[in-house]
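Reading a protein record of the kind used here takes only a little practice. The record below shows the convention in full.

——
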Amino acid sequence: MDRVAIKNLEVFAYHGVMPEENIVGQKFIISVDMYVDNTKAVRDDEINKAVNYAEVSEFIKSYVENHTYKLIETLAERLAEHILLTFDRVYNLVIEIAKPWAPVHMPLDTVSVKIERGWHIAHLSIGSNMGDKEAHLDKAVAAIDDCLGIQLMRVSDYIVTSPVGYTNQDDFLNAAVTIRTLLSPHKLLDTIHGIEADDGRVRDIHWGPRTIDIDIILYDDLIMGDEELIIPHKEAAKRMFVLKPLAQIAPYAIHPVYNKTVQQLYEEMIEADNLKEYEPLDTGFFAIDMLDVNEDTRIAYFGVEGTYSQQAMEDFFGEGGYVSYALPKFTDVMEAVSSGEADYGVIPIENSSTGGVTDIYDHMHEYDIYIVGSQIVKIEHALLGLPGSSIEDIKTVYSHNQGIRQCGSFFEAHPHITPVPVSDSTAAGAKKVLSDNDYTQGAIAAKRAAKLYGLQIIKEAVNDLTNNRTRFVIISGKKQYVSNSGRISLSFEVKHESGALYKMLSHFANYGINLEKIESRPIRLRNWEYRFFVDIAGNLGMQSVKSALAAVNEVADGMKILGNY
């Protein structure tokens, strides 16, 4: 920091306790040392980027001449304050006011007062959990900025946090504010108490609801404490609602007690919270030795006869010994299982080349259904048509949208063919070709659909990837799982704030659980909000899994265990 000095500036003025001093006047000698950052002024050699000592001298002369105080202590205080407020490049100053003609009637050169004043950096925490919380925070920030002797530097994002201590109250909206102030700690405290009172703050319940709450967290590197004020705030290093927003705007501010940055304290808080021991979650699921399947068991599968879902059902349950039937929509299968009409359902959930079947993910969270098994089926799409038709005859091809997406290269190579999606399944396209009896129509479906509907296989292996696979899930209306199951699927939402997803997922690592897959989907009718779908390795009978799920359940919104299989 550079020092700009003004030495022994003489000003004739009218300050003093004696009445005649205010009438006759006398000489005052003023010296000021100003501590400034002259980096830009020196670099560019420009006076308008420096503290102009001529302007400061004129300002001092004018102020001292045009104000009258009894005490030179008061004059020094007010003059220092106004210099700092007027010349924003001055960070600190030492001002000495000498009064050589002071009426003391003793031999002396002069009497003087010397004070040191300057800007202080303070960090505040603000919060509200009553009424229009955002409006209360906006009002508090504006009020802080309007205070004489305070300059607003930075404001964090507003974050939603859970109440601490007295928990029977609404969530809080919290933020952090960094200011530059001329006020002492106690004057700053009085000022923020005034702002709280103006916004209707009452203190009926310790840690209770409040329109606005403002706390001094840090003030320079000061460590102090008395009956009214403790700095740093004694709870600051223990409160996520303080550290998280403060780390956003002042990550490298030092906590003088712990000698650590705010960012370090914030990261330690996250780690400590993640390592907290959680009581195992009561999931409501029960273990069984095997799925109960007999000749009365009803199994619904998606699509029409001949679809890949039917193949998945037969691969998983066998080709007989139960009652099976097809339903045209994913939601029809889910509804049948949820209502008890069907004991099990079979639906596709993801493909190795095109990813998740989006409708399934959207609806799995909504129905009372649970995954109890899975079956992977090799997908070998073929172009089917009426007997005697050729690829040159085909102008329109019907298939499920997933099937069309998996055969993109085929359609690029045959631009005369237009793909048309059908809502039911790939086999539904084959059924339509037979029904319409049109030689210009074809279907992309399994070869078994050709045999079932009496169609000709015009071209085999039309899918892009030879290793194309689809995973189907077996769903049940019961919260059950086979005891040797090794995969758990769940869905959840997280608060829209930084670190929320990281914090949630870190619980799996802390309990030694492998994360196998994560996928996000936009939540219907809620713009820019997302639901996450996660697969983890584990069994619901394991204590570590149940403890991890308890930790996740505490952080996440709307967690649902979709199944263990």
In short: The chain has four domains: 2-117, 120-273, 275-374+472-565, 382-467. The chain has a mean pLDDT of 92. The first strand starts at residue 2 and ends at 13.
